[in-house]
Write a structure and sequence with these properties.
The longest helix has 24 residues. The chain is elongated and about 95 Å long. The strands form five sheets. The protein has a four-stranded parallel β-sheet, with helices on both faces. Strands 5-6-7-8 form a four-stranded antiparallel β-sheet. It has a three-stranded mixed β-sheet with strand order 12-11-13, with no helix packed on it. With 485 residues, the protein is of the alpha/beta class. It has three domains: 254 residues, HUPs (Rossmann fold, 3-Layer(aba) Sandwich); 152 residues, Isoleucyl-tRNA Synthetase, Domain 1, CATH 1.10.730; 51 residues, no CATH class. Helix 10 packs antiparallel against helix 13. A hairpin with a 2-residue loop joins strand 14 and strand 15. The protein has 16 helices and 15 strands.
């Protein structure tokens, strides 16, 4: 399968050819840990969880690193507000991040480097940049000289002349050029600091990722991911640092995901619309979050309006309803694992279609369209109340194998079907303001009408329930009702 990835640097899709196949080294900029992470912070982890899994399906051996920035101005400010040490704050919120990550059911990374554990590598890289005349020291600060790096701006497409024209010259005049940026910052009273050849201090933001990548993977990596807000200046500066040290191309494929909006507005503290992931999944569910994220291509802005959430609940309910039916006819799926063969010809074809659309820059929106088609086809032929046959049992077993494969790829569809469907139905009942007691009353009246062979009344009640948004199925075990999907 020929995989194409959109490379931010070239601004086009490129055929994926890793530096040392089948090995793929991948690094994603992780969080600055000073608070609970908002829902935008987890778009990357959900998307890159799928990317790593997909690369493995293609036969690559992936090493995946996501870092924690555990020393930063925001962490220091939060520590001062709480009367805590900055490292206590960062450790607390690293644990909260891991808890959120676990709630999302994502696979762990191979490496989670921390800035505070990478000081030796950071100082070594800064020294090397000074030795190569790419950086200079000023009163305990070390600054990168962008004029020494001829390719500055090649990732973001920004011209240095325009940037300089719009830059504010620092009043302390430490910088030789307004765009020069800090590699090392001299210690200030009350802030965490480390010994260095330039005196006690702490690293600048950009050098941290460059040093951690080199420490784990060496001078070059295959894929570097991050939000589109990191392209400039963070990733531009990372590239300048790493290539300034090695004189080699730093990253082969730059992959950036887009931001989230709330009802068409950019998420921001000033608008008061920032929601932590913990708040979202406590109010809704991790499945709903992942479903929204993967329903949109990663390079498209994802909207978290009430309408988007409602649509996702309805879509998930339709899928889980079909999985609950499949489990009724083929309940023993305890032996299901990654090695269980998918033998149904149609489902094998639909799985291959998913592999194909993901080869086009990880097009999860098209993947979802294929999943909807599979669910539609299943619902047309399998309903509650059918006579159990070996062919029906096998069809339902294969359907569950298909969703096990999709779930292993996406981290979706991990819940027990009947229980999660009941949860989703309750949300739909609330959304549609359905009177449950009235539903039960009409179902009891319909059951009595059927017993008295008053089929006209039975049909009239069924129609009223359908108009109300309720579907019913007559099974050997009795009447099953659920919100219409």
């Amino acid at each position: 399968m020929e995989l194409k990835i959109y490379n931010t640097q070239s601004r086009q899709k490129e055929i994926f050819q890793p530096l040392h196949p089948p090995q793929v080294n991948m690094y994603v900029c992780g969080p600055t840990v000073y608070d609970f992470l908002h829902i935008g912070n987890f778009r990357g982890p959900v998307v890159f969880n799928l990317i790593r899994n997909y690369l493995e399906i293609l036969g690559y051996k992936v090493k995946f690193a996501l870092n924690f920035t555990d020393v930063d101005d925001k962490i220091i400010k939060k520590a001062n507000e709480l009367g805590m040490k900055s490292l206590e704050v960062s450790e607390k919120f690293i644990e909260e991040y891991k808890r959120d990550f676990e709630l999302l059911g994502l696979r762990g990374h191979d490496y989670n480097p921390k800035v505070t554990e990478s000081m030796e590598a950071i100082i070594t890289m800064v020294q090397k940049l000074i030795e190569q005349n790419m950086a200079y020291e000023q009163n305990g600060d070390v600054l990168y000289s962008i004029e020494k790096f001829k390719g500055y701006g090649k990732l973001s497409g920004r011209k240095t002349e325009e940037l300089i024209a719009g830059a504010r010259v620092d009043v302390d005049e430490k910088k030789r050029n307004p765009l020069d940026f800090a590699l090392w910052k001299a210690a200030k009273p009350g802030e965490p600091s480390w010994d260095s050849p330039w005196g006690r201090g702490r690293p600048g933001w950009h050098i941290e990722c460059s040093a951690m990548i080199e420490k784990i993977f060496g001078e070059q990596i295959d894929i570097h991911g991050g939000g589109s807000d990191l392209i400039f200046p963070h990733h531009e500066n990372e590239m300048a640092q790493s290539e300034g040290c090695s004189h080699k191309s730093f990253v082969k494929y730059w992959v950036h995901w887009q931001m989230l909006n709330f009802s068409g507005q950019k998420m921001s503290k000033s608008l008061g619309n920032i929601i932590s992931l913990r708040q979202f999944i406590e109010r809704y569910h991790p499945e709903i979050y992942k479903f929204i994220i993967l329903s949109v291509h990663y390079r498209t802005i994802a909207d978290f309006s009430d309408e988007t959430v409602d649509r996702s609940i309805s879509s998930l309910a339709r899928i889980y309803s079909s999985l609950a039916v499949a489990k009724v006819y083929s309940p023993d799926v305890s032996a299901l694992n990654a090695e269980t063969p998918l033998t149904d010809v149609q489902l094998k074809t639909q799985w291959q279609k998913i592999v194909e659309v993901l080869s086009d820059d990880f097009n999860t929106a098209e993947m979802m369209a294929i999943i909807y088609e599979v669910v539609k086809n299943f619902n047309q032929s399998v309903k509650r109340g059918l006579k159990v046959t070996p062919a029906l049992k096998e069809k339902c077993f294969q359907y569950q194998i298909y969703f096990h494969k999709v779930g292993s790829l996406t981290a979706l569809f991990q819940e027990e079907p009947a229980g999660f469907l009941a949860f989703l139905d309750q949300r739909l009942i609330e959304l549609k303001s359905i009177d449950v007691e009235l539903v039960k009353k009409w179902i009891a009246e319909r059951t009595l009408a059927r017993q008295e062979k008053d089929f006209k009344k039975s049909d009239e009640i069924r129609d009223k329930l359908n108009q109300m948004g309720i579907s019913i199925s007559d099974t050997p075990e009795g009447v099953h009702w659920e919100v219409s999907k």
